[in-house]
Structures are given as C-alpha cells and as structure tokens.
Amino acid sequence: MAVAAAAAEAVGLSKEKGSDTEASIVTPASSTCTRRNPLAGLLAHQRYIINDGGMGTLLEALIGMPLDPLLWSAGCVLTHPDAIKEAHKQYFEAGADIATTSTYQATVQGYMQRENDDITQNQAEDLIRKGVTLAIEARDEFWAPTGGVADEMKKKDSKRQRPLVAASLGCYGAAQADGSEYRGQYGLTIEELMDWHRPRLALLDTTDADFLAFETIPCESELLAILYLLHEGEDQRKDTHAKSSSSRSRSRKPCWITMACQNGTRLNSGESLEACARHVLALDGSSTSRVVAFGVNCMPPQHVEEALSVIRRTFTSEAAGKEVPLLVAYPNLGEIWEDKQWLPGTGSCPTPEGFALSAARWVEAGASIVGGCCRTTPKTIQAVRARLIPVEEEEKQGVNDKRKQT
User: Fold this and answer.
1) Using the 8-state DSSP alphabet, how is residue 389 labeled?
2) Interatomic CA distance for residues 397 and 400, integer angstroms
3) pLDDT tens-digit profile of 99-137?
4) Which of 85, 99, 379, 380 is most buried (CB neighbours < 10 A)?
C-alpha cells in the first residue's frame, strides 16, 4: 500500500489548507493539558532547552580509535562504558539539559554479530538497556552535590535544572551501517518497518529514561511506522496496521521524533517535510498523544531555519488552537557522510560560535529545543548555551570571587 494511501485510510487526512490568518496554537509547555511531558518542567524555568551534541566524534577522541561501524557508539557500551559516561559528563558540564543515550545504532542483531564475543540475545538486550543506565548514572553523578566544579556551574547558572535522559532510537538505515539513512530508500513496507522497530522500542520503553528520541528518520514510511507503533493496541485506533495485543495497550513513554532532511522542505528520501508534520498532528493529535516534540536533526545547519518554518506553518494552519508538539532542531556541522567518512559539504562547517549564532535563528523560527548532532562537540554546546541562556554578570562575578578564595 502506498504511503499516502495508508495515511489517508488510517486518519482521513484533509487536503484543505488553513485560512490566511494564523490560527493560534498551544505548545505543551504553555498548555494546561495533563499530558506527560518532562520537557515542560525544564521550560518552566528557562526559555530554551539545550540538547547535547555528537557522541561518535567525542568517543573516538576519548578511546583513541574508530568506532565499531555496525554499532557505532553503542559498541562502546560493551568495550568502553567509562568513556560513554565521560562523554555524557562533558556535555552536562558544557550546559546540556538532555543526554541522548548511546543506543542510536544499538540492535540485538548488531551485538550478536560481533566476532569473538558470542553474545546471546538476552545479553544483547541487556547491553541496550545498559546504554540508558550509563547516561542516567552520568547524569546523577553530575547532579549530585559534591562541592566540585559541577556545583560551581549550577550556582553560576541559577536557571540550571536537573538534566533529562532521552533513550535514542535511530532509524532503520543507521542500523544497516551502509549510509542508507542519508538516502531514505529502504524498499520496505510500513508493516516491515514496524516489525523492525517494535522489539527495540519495547526494550527502551521499559527503561528509566525520561523519554524516547526517535532520531534521523529519513522517509515518510518510517515516520508512519513509528506513529502507528506509539499507539499500537489502543482500542480507539482504526488502523489496519495495528496489531491486537493487550500487552501492547499500556501507555508508552513520551517521545520526540526528528526527521533527517536534505534541505528545508524535503526529507533525505525527497518526500515532503510538510506532509510529515501533518501526519504527526493527524495520528498523534489526541488525548493520548505521545509526541511531545517534533523537528529535525543531522541535516545541514543552513537549512534548519526553513525546515522549522515549514513545520511551524503546518502546525499553525492544521492545529486550529489545539496543542501541538514543541519544535526541536539539532543539525550536524554541514558535512557529508560518504564512503564511511565525513567530507566537506556544500555549506560552511561553522565554528562553535557560528553554530551558536545559527541556533539563535532557530529559536526565532520557533524551536524550543536546540543542540548538535554529528561532528559537534561539547564546545559547540557550551557556545549554544552561552548564546541562548546567558548568565547574569553578577552571578559570574560571584563565582569568580569564590574560586579566588579556594
């Protein structure tokens, strides 16, 4: 069944546009809705949320060798768990409000295919859960009152709140380790993509992560598969793709979904970003909503502002006063992944300060959550936080005076 036909059958998507006058929309942070949204707690204290940055580049620097191409950063859960905690710690110290776990490319099959390790299915599942545990441990150790540098940072930035942990679920293409997430041409049906995502979703949904992060989704069919899975088993669904099982009817964790785009209007697959925003509202816009944020990641930074404008305009015209997800954006540095390496792209690869200046434009375009993806570092995130959540001068002076006394 074609994607467009499947979507129309499932939710009866309207082709009508909104009026020329912008309809008011309500974000989860400003709504009185009781929908579970851990992000709203952060936004009650600060205007923006700072996501972390690239994990792979930092881990390679920490361990001094290339990452496992099949598992990427997830391979370090097995071989270098302390490096993963150190990477999370560096991002927290740089100002990140969220740690995305090292499970982006983690699959049971990927772990079981490692040579000379003889990993069983149960052990592989435990390793995926451990990726979340490492991030939680790093967060709790960072936030614990120890009288160290972290405490000084928290005093310096009075707005700083306890960071969150997002369990990362990368796209199908990432797990193939062949660059197909940058093409979005899988040759799989929606049902097949649901079957692929279901086991890992079940694993990470039962961890102690604060929410789930579906990342780098490059095609419309994979978005639809995720949206169907989020509500799988609910009695009110009239979706021919849903599987009937009482064990799947429990409430899932909230999540965000970020799309991988080639420019400001098209996914890596060439499909419409605007259509994807409509799918989110149509398939998740109910009292049982799971998607608390929607946006883009791992795309060229020079196209982020337009992509956010497309999503925001679609939400405004289609929502008609209803609550909509927050907008999230965390692009890469503008390079191109080719032949299993990063090569210079058509756009500039900004410095941390340049990236932060771009982030200021992304929040002007509507983003509430911003950060970095591939090739960004803790210095990038530090610059973004300094730009978007500046510390008052008197607070800076107070910290400096205390440090002189010690």
Assistant:
1) S
2) 5
3) 999 999 999 999 999 988 999 999 999 999 999 999 999
4) 99
